[in-house]
Amino acid sequence: MEMATKKQLWALYCLTKKDWRDKGLTKEQASQMLNELLAENLLITAIEEGYKAMKQVKEGNEITYESDLQGRPIKNGKVYYMKEFSGCGSGALQVFDREFIKILKRLLKKKEKDRWEGYIGKHYIELGKGYRNIYYMYIDKFSYSNGHFAKLEAFYYTISSVLQEKGYKIYAYTRLD
Questions:
Q1: End residue of a domain, out of 40, 68, 86
Q2: What is the pLDDT of residues 83-127, one digit of tens each?
Q3: How far apart are CA 9 and CA 1, in angstroms?
Q4: Domain count, the chain
Q5: pTM for this one?
Q6: H/E stretch holding 92
Q7: Closest to 103 (Cα-Cα) out of 52, 21, 34
């Protein structure tokens, strides 16, 4: 059982601002802690980038005319105007990276079978195993948008691209209703 290296202990100190020298950490324990801290910091950064991208989205306007059952506009019917409308839909992150899944499972609390949730930084994260054993990650309970689909897409696609740049197999999943 090899003890943690000076570089590992220094990196842990830089990330946590705690002295780990006399804690008796092994190389494996220090490595696991570093991986978790780095993934946690990267995820927080990616989420913040996602929120920035979402704020920059300019959505179009929607005009809807009152119509009959066949979809034909009714003469002298009402006209509905919706400012900043881009459709309704849902979104999430599909997580294929097994190492990232293991880290998330350690950071989050198990809620029920194949479902974990909790806070990473100030962000509420839900991780669940779905159809075909694909893990889905939802952030800040923002998985459905009623009328602001473009913002939802920008949010999840930005997060996935930041995580992909660091080598994780994580993809945005969106569906327009």
A1: 86
A2: 777 778 999 999 999 999 999 999 999 999 899 999 999 999 999
A3: 16
A4: 2
A5: 0.80
A6: strand 88-95
A7: 34
